[in-house]
Amino acid sequence: MSAPAKTASSIKDVARAAGVSVATVSRVLGNGPVSEALRKRVEDAVRATGYRPNLSARRLRSQHSQTVGLVVSDIRNPFFTAVSRAVEDAAYHAGMRVILCNSDENPEREELYLRLMQEERITGLIFAPTRATLDRLDRLDLEFPVVLIDRNAPAGRHDAVVLDNPQAAAMLVDHLHARGYRRIAGLFGNTSTTGAERHEGYRAAMAAKGLVPAARFIAPYADAAEEAVERWMADADRPEAFVVSNSLFLMGVVKAARRMGLSIPGRLAVAGFDNEPWTELVGPGLTVIEQPVQEIGRSAMALLFERLEQPDRPTRRLVLAGTCVVRGSTGARLEAAD
Amino acid sequence: MSAPAKTASSIKDVARAAGVSVATVSRVLGNGPVSEALRKRVEDAVRATGYRPNLSARRLRSQHSQTVGLVVSDIRNPFFTAVSRAVEDAAYHAGMRVILCNSDENPEREELYLRLMQEERITGLIFAPTRATLDRLDRLDLEFPVVLIDRNAPAGRHDAVVLDNPQAAAMLVDHLHARGYRRIAGLFGNTSTTGAERHEGYRAAMAAKGLVPAARFIAPYADAAEEAVERWMADADRPEAFVVSNSLFLMGVVKAARRMGLSIPGRLAVAGFDNEPWTELVGPGLTVIEQPVQEIGRSAMALLFERLEQPDRPTRRLVLAGTCVVRGSTGARLEAAD
DNA sequence: AGCCGATCTGTAATCGTTTTCAGTTGCCGA
DNA sequence: TCGGCAACTGAAAACGATTACAGATCGGCT
Question: Secretion signal: which residues (chains A, B) (predicted)?
Fold first, then answer.
């Protein structure tokens, strides 16, 4: 049984063990030109000493960190969970590492992490910023390329990958309209640009159908949605259907409906965003917009790599379409209802 | 408008701008003894140059990486998602960074990441290993402390935080028994030690009640559970209830029940693990064991820090109890059934 | 024999920090 | 006036790698 090395061995130890210079060891490791005999001696020495290169030293010298940052609001948001997997996979295949940070929609924490990213000298950043940070992003003079995801400025100085939010929201409205619903309410998050974009799509689609939009903006929690629905459904002008801008709200709506004894879709139809596995299982199944999460993560990394190769190419903004997954929660409206 | 710095400024640039030596700059940054006058000059220079310390250099010199590794099978598993948040928060408060890796239950990928951890010279690792790696973990001679989570060797050389899996599984069996169920089947994952432990608890509890255990081991996917249930429920000796060892299987059971038109709990009761938000919303609500995920993450970090302070203190194994959240999916058995 | 070029190897500089050690001040008391 | 001490500051040596440059060896050619 080998005694655990007290301290990691360095390239010098390997050089000494092999009876060569550190340059030779480095060359063996980096595929430089080395004679077969020495190469073998060095490789044996590497095994014998249990040598592992020190990445800090390597990065310092080479000025490449081989690291991408990923800053999102909360990894527990399933959208970001999925995107992070795609990003991590892409990084893995490119031989890079990922540093993951949760900003909690908190600009201070976000700022701290941006500073960290600079200190890490990351190769690039994939970023879902808060509104506040998005506004001052151009003034920040970051030293690495940034690819925005999910949130996004209209015509930014940065590459971006986003869902076509207005169109997606409109799809939901159109679908509900086709199923016979007219009084369609909207619940949107009040912190992100995403909520705003989806609201805009909702508003436009309603107008196009000659319906009156009725939107409320709430904090991004299920509870907030539950409360909003309960209050709203007690009103005289209660809606027949809800379009909501994320899966937390979807939960809130279902909970409220259950508590008030309103059947879905009999008394209340629902449609929302994010095709999570459980949306299929709840009640009659929930109609949702499915985001191409894999592709969003992959494309973000792809844009990042393109930018690294051609730093001066014009900014690109990738707008991906969502797909509407129709389920029971938007079943045809019963004329008898109400 | 300031032109973007072509290259990050180093401590030398600051020193030059402030007209002092680099040592002084370093002391200002690190709260060393510096006169007020110079401190001010340096701080101004730092602002003027937009200086950010280079963490690679700092780590190389100080030999502290201030980084913890987190290697789990898949961040999309909600248990790990939640744990990762707790870990990240703890790290954030301790001024440390987190490197997140997904092993996909793949020993090769796991090995690659363990190597990476060594090259990063991480401060410590929080690790949910595959069975294969768990077995040879002692022979790996890692140079940093490891805290195991979720999976775990009986009496290892490493600290660990785990759920009391046998007891938790037994709680589910006892609960179902109390509700009148007798033919209680079990579905367990065939890759992790967790599945094995939960099976053991299930087996023991069944035996204690004088019931015959009937367990099957399946691949860790919802589809596998769905298929297993469909086949099993077509048998002559079909169970009245299922105990399943994770939330993916829970989904599989619900899907199968729905497809076969079996009402829950009328024709089929279900209980499982992981109190995810949606388990409340599916059907009559699903009875589950809730793991103290926050505490698991926090405790893992706490154990890590203790170990760093006292490298030689005896290994500790924290066993946390789950709580049984009772919902409609295990409603009292109808005598009329069958 | 002498020269050239190809091929390998080693020396030493470098990346950006921290930290030791050795000054350099200025102040105080004698 | 001078020694001594405290308080600060700077020069230089690490940390562990990569790499430009130069030196060594050797075969082949004239």
Answer: none
Pairing assessment for the beta strands A323-325 and A287-290 based on DSSP bridges? antiparallel
Hey, which residues does B22 pair with through a beta bridge?
Answer: none
- Do the Cβ atoms of A115 and B52 come within 8 Å? yes
- In this complex, do B116 and A97 lie within 8 Å of one another by their Cβ atoms? yes
Q: Residue B141: its chain A contacts at CB < 8 A?
A: 2, 4-5, 50
For B318 and C12, how far is CA from C1' in angstroms? 53
Query: For residues B97-124, b (16+ Cβ closer than 10 Å) or e, as one string?
Result: bbbbbbbebeeebbbebbebbbbbbbbb
Tokens, residue B182: 């007798």
Structure tokens at A18: 């092999």
Percentage above 90 pLDDT, chain A? 84
With CB atoms and an 8 Å threshold, state whether B76 touches A82.
Answer: yes
Please give the full DSSP string across A36-53, using - where no structure is assigned: HHHHHHHHHHHHHHT---
Closest chain B residue to A53 measured between Cα atoms? B119
Q: Is the CB of B29 under 7 A from strand D?
A: no
Can you give the pLDDT at residue A105? 87
For the stretch B84-131, pLDDT in tens is: 999 999 998 999 999 989 999 899 999 999 999 999 999 999 999 988
**Please, which positions of strand C sit below 7 A from a protein CB?**
7-12, 14-20
Q: SS3 for B285-305, per residue?
A: CCEEEECCHHHHHHHHHHHHH
Write the Ramachandran bin of B181: left for phi over 0, alpha for psi from -120 to 50, otherwise beta: beta
Question: Could you say which residues of chain B have pLDDT below 50?
Answer: 1-5, 336-338
Q: How far is the CA of A76 from the C1' of C7 (A)?
A: 57
pTM: 0.89
CB A233 within 8 A of CB A268: yes
Distance from CA of B24 to the nearest CA of A (A): 20
Contact state of A251 with B277 under an 8 Å Cβ cutoff: yes
